[in-house]
Amino acid sequence: MSDKPAAEPVNVRILDRDYTVGVLPDERESLQAAARLLDDRMRELRGGNRMAAFERIAVLAALNLAHELQLLRERNQARETRIQHALEGLEQRLNKLGLD
């Protein structure tokens, strides 16, 4: 028997369609927030055009969200690089002072 918690079914509604997704109990709220975000984005893309193809709206929403994620990853990487350089500079200063 595994000590891993079992995934539980969670119902989400995205652009007037219901989906059941398995999720770990401690990730439930995050998944529901993600579903709300996706629903909001898809509604925004659809606008007043109720005849827009669901698949097209879904792909555009996914592309927009993936692009945002990529930008955040790049910014995070740049921030980590700056922090690493700052730490290396501090370490060099401490070494010069003999405080290593």
From TrEMBL:
It comes from the Bacteria. SUPFAM superfamilies: Cell division protein ZapA-like. GO terms for biological process: division septum assembly; FtsZ-dependent cytokinesis; septin ring assembly. Pfam families: ZapA. InterPro entries: Cell_div_ZapA-like, Cell_div_ZapA-like_sf, Cell_div_ZapA_N. GO terms for cellular component: cell division site; cell septum; cytosol. The keyword Nucleotide-binding does not apply. It is found in: Cytoplasm. Keywords: Cell cycle, Cell division, Coiled coil, Cytoplasm, Septation. PANTHER family: CELL DIVISION PROTEIN ZAPA (PTHR34981:SF1). Belongs to the ZapA family. Type 1 subfamily. Homodimer. Interacts with FtsZ. Activator of cell division through the inhibition of FtsZ GTPase activity, therefore promoting FtsZ assembly into bundles of protofilaments necessary for the formation of the division Z ring. It is recruited early at mid-cell but it is not essential for cell division. This is Cell division protein ZapA. It comes from Solilutibacter pythonis. The lineage of its organism: Bacteria, Pseudomonadati, Pseudomonadota, Gammaproteobacteria, Lysobacterales.
